[in-house]
Write a sequence for this structure.
């Protein structure tokens, strides 16, 4: 898909830019018909605001043009991405982890040789080269006498037994991604790279859970990964108390809260409790939209993947209580989107995409309200 975009050049006002705007005669000329039809200037201006106007410097779009651009941006995203690829990507990451671990088990087990069967440079099983290699290894193990050979045999058998048990564990893993991840959390990896990749996958899931409440969660995830769960629990508990005070009509000490935990909210932390509440409600709505937009089977799998992912029952309970307070203040509403593209994206990118779609929806609602009452002050100029 080729996306064509307009280019704009901005400069400091010096008076010359006035030529780019329609003059008063042009505006009055295009208002004349509406003035005759509606009989008052307010209605005529509202009509002009909706349709835009033509001037010597080119057409100036109205609200209808902006709404058309918003719908186009939404359609471009829906036609571009494949939401079902989220779970496919997680499954592929798991397959890579398991492949790395199996390769590590093959290296650990002396009975499989230095290289797995079928690997480049490895002799085929049953070939004269393989038989010769085994015979040479056996002779070398006992060449210095019986005791060293027995010790080597014991070590070889021990490593082989460990590798065999681990292979049997991997062979018995469930077929679904949630079941595999749950089982592998209690598994002792022998391959460091496999363990590192698995921890990265767990961090991605933790980030998605945390992102369903907060923006800019990298600092929170680092602290969770380092085992500093207590500070996260303290922050959520204190935030819950702020919401209790807000619901009771009291004035919470938001500044004191940010002095303790402001570093956890990224480089652009919220300036007020209202801003933080709005951010959290938007994040919750984005997660709801993601869940609603998935097919039923994938919705259930993703729900299992994210369930209790933070690894602390008390923290999960605190977050559920926080969600209840936020719903009481203003229920977050998600929306189902229908995607038809084929471009893959991961879980966190999908969360960001849902936030973009919600911003487009919100801006569209604002512009539609302006069409009704003509009040431009309700439009978020930064988003526009």
């Amino acid at each position: 898909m080729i996306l064509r975009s307009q280019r704009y050049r901005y400069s400091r006002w010096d008076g010359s830019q006035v030529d780019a705007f329609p003059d008063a005669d042009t505006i009055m000329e295009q208002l004349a018909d509406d003035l005759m039809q509606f009989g008052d200037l307010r209605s005529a201006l509202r009509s002009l605001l909706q349709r835009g106007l033509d001037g010597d410097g080119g057409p100036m779009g109205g609200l209808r043009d902006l709404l058309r651009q918003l719908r186009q941006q939404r359609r471009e995203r829906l036609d571009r991405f494949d939401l079902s690829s989220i779970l496919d990507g997680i499954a592929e990451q798991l397959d890579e982890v398991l492949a790395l671990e199996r390769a590590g088990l093959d290296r650990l087990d002396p009975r499989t040789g230095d290289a797995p069967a079928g690997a480049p440079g490895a002799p085929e099983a049953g070939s004269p080269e393989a038989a010769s290699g085994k015979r040479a290894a056996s002779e070398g193990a006992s060449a210095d006498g019986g005791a060293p050979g027995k010790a080597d045999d014991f070590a070889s058998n021990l490593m082989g037994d460990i590798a065999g048990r681990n292979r049997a564990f991997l062979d018995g893993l469930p077929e679904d991604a949630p079941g595999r991840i749950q089982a592998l959390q209690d598994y002792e990896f022998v391959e460091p790279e496999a363990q590192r990749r698995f921890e990265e996958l767990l961090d991605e899931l933790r980030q998605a859970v945390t992102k369903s409440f907060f923006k800019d969660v990298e600092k929170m995830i680092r602290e969770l990964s380092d085992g500093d769960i207590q500070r996260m629990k303290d922050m959520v508990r204190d935030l819950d108390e702020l919401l209790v005070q807000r619901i009771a009509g009291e004035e919470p000490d938001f500044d004191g809260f940010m002095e303790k935990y402001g570093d956890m909210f990224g480089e652009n932390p919220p300036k007020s409790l209202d801003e933080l509440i709005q951010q959290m409600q938007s994040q919750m709505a984005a997660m709801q939209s993601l869940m609603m937009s998935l097919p039923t089977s994938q919705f259930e799998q993703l729900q299992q993947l994210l369930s209790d992912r933070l690894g602390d029952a008390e923290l999960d309970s605190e977050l559920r209580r926080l969600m209840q307070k936020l719903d009481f203040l203003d229920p977050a509403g998600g929306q189902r989107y229908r995607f038809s593209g084929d471009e893959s994206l991961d879980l966190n990118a999908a969360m960001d995409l849902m936030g973009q779609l919600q911003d487009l929806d919100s801006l569209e609602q604002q512009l539609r309200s302006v069409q009704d009452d003509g009040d431009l002050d309700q439009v978020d100029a930064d988003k526009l």
